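Preliminary data (for renewal application), KG4 complex.
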Amino acid sequence: MIPTPPTILAFDTSCDDTSVAVVRGFQVISSEVASQTALHAPYGGVFPTVAKHEHQKQLPLVTQRALDTAGISLTEVNFLAVTKGPGLAPALECGIQFVSQFGKEHAIPVIPVNHLEGHVLSPWVEIGATKSSPPLFPALSLVISGGHTDVFLVEKMGNYQQIAQTVDDAAGEALDKVGRLLGLGYPAGAAMEQLARAGDATTFSFPLPKTAPNDLDFSFAGLKTAARRTIERQPQPLSDTLKNDFAASFQAAVIRHVIHKLKRILGVHPSVKSLWLGGGVAANQSLRDALQLLCQENKLSFAVPPERWLCADNAAMIGAAASLHLDRANEQLDRSPQWKLQ
Ligand code: KG4
Ligand code: ZN
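Predicted structure:
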């Protein structure tokens, strides 16, 4: 007999973090991450061969840590779950191969999960005894990270319709690239936020990206180019004050674009009752403040992940998503680097 909710051992290797978690339904029992950030930093991005090698090395270790922290043995695990896509193909492959083999060895069925569904559901993942008020539908979910800037209409848990995406760079990618010009290393989003706190956001002005009047999609490439040109015009090397002001101004421009598009989306979908936020950039407090204000103005409830680490890639959100799809156990497990969430 499988208990309700079942115990799921979940895995995410979609990019540069080896993540393993134990969940029961949406409740996190343990969550462990081996981050590769320091190894990729010298390359200014994720280096696929390094990612693959590290995932292979870390997967057995992180799995054991997740079980130990949860204080359970494998016999108590009802399902395995693994990210099938979207993500970096060689990284996805590592997780899928490891979990398939592990499932066969221990006779535990495997549920394939869409990484984006994990980010969408991350505001509803539960830690400890604190329960949030139930989600209001229909909802809009903004997934904003280094690889994605997507908006989904959520009619109910498990039912998603994508209504906007970025046509070029993701918001986090733009912050990372501009952060690099400021000498901030990779990834730069959190460091940009720190500089921005000490800066004046009115120092530099960036135009709103030009898109067709009814277009709901995002575009960050133009902002990034404008940022590069602006930096090149400044006296070099940039002073600390100038860096702070620049970070504040650029971050504000990114947020302004996000809010502008969300206003348009809300105009097209006036029945929406709540806004959910997920993805690495969701950790940004200025973005959260701007979205909170937008929600107040539009009488929407606003849901963010209960802890900051749940914004970044993690396996807890993958386990939570898997708990909605037990019927997928033992489906085809080929990696799907471009998998759409629909
Ligand atoms: O979700 P995530 O861990 O990985 C994927 O891209 O899927 O997101 C990483 C992104 C990076 O671009 C990083 O710079 C950005 O999230 N990020 C932030 C902050 N923390 C991480 N961006 C803005 N403010 C932050 N505090
Ligand atoms: Zn992600």
